[in-house]
Amino acid sequence: MPRHSDFGTRNHSAKHALPDDPAYIDFPRSDGDSDAWPKNTTRVVDAEGCVNYMQPVGLDESLSIKWRVGVADIMASEMKLPGKKPYVLRDWPTGYRMFDHHKGKAANPRHDAYLFGSKSKFRSVPEFAPHAIWLMGDGSVPCNCKYCTKKPQREISSAMGLRTSSSPSPSRPVRPKPEKEKELKKEVLTKPRLADRLQSHKTYAAVQKVLNLPKVSPHIQTKNIMLVERNNNLRDACRPISEGSIPRWFREGELVWCALETPIVKPELGGDTIKLWPAIIDEVKLRIDPQSLPHEPVSADEVSTPWVARQSTAYKVQFLAIQRSYLLPDTMIASQLSGFWCLTDDWEAKLALPPAVRPPPPPSSLQSAIELAGNNNANIYSSISSGPRGQGPPPPPPRIVNQTRFQGLWWGGERIWADDLVRLKVPRSCLAPQGAQHIFAPSGPGNKSRLLAESRGKDPTLYGAGSRGVFMKIDTIFIVDGVGKRECRVTGMLYELADIDWEDPNLPRNVESISSNGVPATAVKLPNPSSFRGLLCTAARPQCLISGRYYPRILQHPLMKPTLNEVIPLDRDSMISVGHIWALEGLFAGYKNAVDPTFYKASREKMVSAASEEAMVAIQQHIDDRRQMMDVDD
């Protein structure tokens, strides 16, 4: 088996040159396409002093020469090319090009070599060598590279005799170890063993306080696998918030609006002002800011800390339409909507269905009826005489079926997981307004709301939960079988908003998923002055009825204050005119402020790409319309 030197290392600092009098290899065909080349080839330093771009590498640069020599060496050995001259690739296959990925701090970024052009990018010489050998043939034999065979690279390298670890070879002689490495090794050998050193030191551990999480809903299958990202997002939704801080509302990959510190003003366009800019969240970071406390007299023996640590959330976002990323505080982020959706993280659920009991067919004649009655009597007599009463054949086992379920979905710009609390479009008055067998009637007004309605001469029943929205605690996400168009369904417990001082005539009731005060198992921050009330109904609803995720205390966001100041104090007309604001807290039906995606995409990347294309068309149309408005006839 031929053996080759290690070409998988990522040392770009070494200088490589073409050998003397080489024999060149030309590719007779290619599967390359320049459209597969990366687009982010411009060096941009972000706010944190980092870069992330692809730099094209010339054919005669050291990195390209290293690959050209390494790939040709493997090809010559595997294809048993004649001659003793060293082989070199004359050029890359048509449509191929090498790029150096710069990522990290701008002063000292990490370098990774990639060869683009095929359907998949190649990261090393051993990865590309089997594909290069396949390009030398006519295509009748399948390619043996890792991307075409779906095999691990270690298995392919072992079959070709490629060494994956550094070892001496004719093309790379043994280098003597520097004196510094020898001294370091000697120092390590003379030090006492690690176990002996650890025994002579005391170990101090900081114990984190146990987080009191809400009780698990009985509708949740706790034995199912949960993604780490989903677990973290749901825990953040339940985590208590310190005074004056904002909850971690937004999640990685979501589309949001970012407030600009300096609004963009265009006087030539009639004074239009751009105050917000769309962006996609790349990363969510925890921010800790120390704040000084007022000095208070304390005794000499008492220890006092003159500061307190305030935690907040910072979002690293990628602004759309420009190649800039920023780290913004949570006070400058607001949610955004779009028109596409997709499902993520599917898994197979095993469901046990009870066996169907088929009634016996009716007798076709009087003689058949007499024979059937005789057989039944004989069976009854046999069961009584041969064993205990009621003992019969065992029931058939339940039928096990598999159902594809999903842990989450992208609903427009929002990331929604199973176990999230979402708003529904339907108002409470349209959902069993008089009550039903498995659902309560809407709760009435509390004492304060009733007194307010009577003082204004209004009907008190209009101030109850019937005029508000409906919430769902999602338990299951699945696709409807047997339909032509892809349709998703969500199931879960339904909740309404009831006044805190409203007395429920149905209490006490024994429902495990609802606590004694009517709060669902999510334990999220409740809208004030209302509380969640379970409707005792686990429903299955099409995903089109979802308005969006519920954001606790969203109306207290700093970006909402200017809008709220314009509509407060409230009257009936002003309250209805800004119903889209109150719908965020469930005080109005969800259809007043709803995410309404209609087009399904297979992945988040395709959603963003399609939305970008539509946005470019809309912007161009807007520019054309403004240009026509500014044209003046002679």
TrEMBL record:
- Matching InterPro entries, A to Z? Clr2, Clr2_N
Chain spans, region Disordered = 1-36, 156-185, 381-400
Give start-end positions of Basic and acidic residues composition bias. 176-185
Ranges for domain Cryptic loci regulator 2 N-terminal come to: 87-148
Q: Which GO terms describe its cellular component?
A: mating-type region heterochromatin; rDNA heterochromatin; SHREC complex
Source taxon at top rank? Eukaryota
One BP annotation, GO? silent mating-type cassette heterochromatin formation
Name recorded for this polypeptide: Actin-related protein 8
